[in-house]
Design goal:
By secondary structure, the protein is an alpha/beta fold. About 50% of the residues lie in helices and about 10% in strands. It has 17 helices and ten strands. The strands form two sheets. Strands 1, 2, 3, 4, 5, 6, 7 and 8 form an eight-stranded mixed β-sheet that branches. A two-stranded parallel sheet has the order 9-10. The longest helix has 20 residues. About 45% of the residues are buried.
Length: about 425
């Protein structure tokens, strides 16, 4: 009989996202029997084998860049120049010392990792490192690591060379396991897993795509930026933990949404709120799908919708389309993704930010006949200004002052902003009728 497993990818400070995943798995009762990891995934994995969630949460909430490596940088990036200065500091450490000194990380791990607890845990543990300079992959388990050396080999797995110094153990040198397999799903399968939650932090490293037909595999990735992987910013840590938590609930069907998170049933409620007005906009613009007759703008919109919904195949129904357009509007307007929304609460958040934006000066609509002309006209505008421009063009179209052909050209030129504007205009019309 197979086993449940958690596979944790490498990614430096982005590993805070995995703590949120772990929190959700605890709530969901996902009783993992195997944990595998690479780099920071191996460090988090060791704590998962210990089953010390509170300890892991405390560690990450307190973690600063200076706790990981001996390099003089602050945790936040204040400006492009600040980013350049921080990158220069790491480059200087690479040239001078072969990478930043990771002794602070080692000291911290020795205070958090309980080797004896891991060895007696019923949870199996495997992780990756790479022998240097041969670049030979090494799969390690708690059984194959010599007693008393677990932290040493965990440091080897997380030796993000050349940003950090390589790890020397005995007469061998090791570097980050991401040079071989940054999300070691195969290690979990080899240990007997057939139900796997794999967390990919999308950091630099080798991802080995393999097919395991007999394995149930849930791949978790953040749809939001998780930050600079070498900087440990406490605000970003808290944000990433919440993002990991919400994404896991969605992966297990306990929440809805793609980019954002919704309580069960709220996606359909969102669609029902704008259904009539969106149908009217589609019909007026000539964008309403008719079998056997598709404008280029319609095809482009459908491709963008599939990309936004992460659905390369299959039917797109009205509810999915409304969700994608709503999420696009929310993202462009800067609505935070850190809570589970209802249809009413996402509407309120979107409209509040849209009304603030409406006071901005936007160029008058351009009755252009081609996407090329519109693209040239909108070049250089901030995306929020493009969104507002699209909204005003759709308003003018409904009043008969902007042609449907120009609206379709606008859709082809700035597809995501146009789709977001379709939702916003439908929502505003619905609200006006209710008032």
């Amino acid at each position: 009989m197979g086993k449940k497993a958690v596979v944790l990818g490498g990614g430096g400070s982005r590993g805070s996202y995995q703590v949120g995943v772990w929190k959700a798995l605890l709530e969901l009762g996902f009783d993992y029997e195997i944990v595998t990891g690479t780099s920071v995934g191996a460090l988090n994995g060791a704590l998962m084998v210990q089953k010390d969630y509170e300890l892991a949460q405390t560690m990450w909430q307190q973690l600063k860049t200076r706790d990981v490596m001996d390099v003089e940088v602050t945790d936040k990036v204040e400006s492009p120049k600040d980013f350049t200065d921080k990158a220069g500091a790491f480059i200087a450490e690479m040239v001078k010392n072969g990478g930043a000194d990771p002794r602070p990380l080692e000291q911290m791990l020795r205070s958090y990792i309980d080797e004896e607890k891991i060895r007696v845990s019923p949870v199996e543990f495997g992780f990756m490192t790479v022998e240097y300079p041969k670049l030979e992959p090494k799969v390690l388990t708690k059984e194959t690591v010599p007693t008393g050396e677990l932290v040493d080999y965990l440091m080897a797995s997380a030796a993000c060379f050349p940003a950090m110094q390589a790890r020397v153990i005995g007469d061998k040198t090791y570097i980050d396991g991401g040079y071989s397999d940054n999300v070691p799903v195969k290690v979990a399968v080899d240990l007997g897993a057939d139900d796997i939650v794999a967390v990919d932090l999308e950091a630099i490293g080798v991802i080995r795509k393999m097919e395991f037909p007999a394995v149930r595999l849930r791949y978790l990735k953040s749809r939001w930026d998780l930050g600079i992987f070498l900087l440990f910013d406490s605000d970003m840590t808290a944000r990433n933990i919440q993002l990991g938590y919400l994404e896991t609930l969605k992966a297990f069907g306990k929440r809805e949404g793609c980019l954002y998170t919704f309580l069960p049933g709220e996606g359909e409620a969102l669609y029902r709120r704008v259904e009539k007005q969106s149908d009217l906009l589609l019909a007026k613009s000539g964008m309403y799908p008719i079998p056997g007759s598709t404008y280029p703008a319609q095809a482009r919109a459908q491709r963008k919708l599939r990309q936004m919904l992460d659905r390369p195949d299959g039917r797109l129904d009205g509810s999915m389309i409304a969700l994608a357009c709503c999420e696009a509007a929310a993202r462009l307007l800067g609505v935070p993704p850190l809570e589970a929304y209802t249809a009413a609460s996402i509407e309120a958040a979107v409209l509040e930010r849209y009304l603030q934006l409406e006071t901005e000066k936007v160029p008058q609509s351009l009755a252009a006949r081609s996407a090329k002309e519109l693209t040239r006209h909108l070049m250089g505008l901030e995306r929020q200004m493009v969104l507002l421009y699209c909204c005003r063009c759709l308003d003018e179209m409904m009043d008969g002052h902007f042609s449907p052909a120009a609206a379709r050209a606008l859709c082809s030129a700035v597809t995501e902003e146009f789709l977001a504007a379709m939702y916003l205009c439908s929502l505003r019309s619905t609200r006006e009728k209710e008032e």
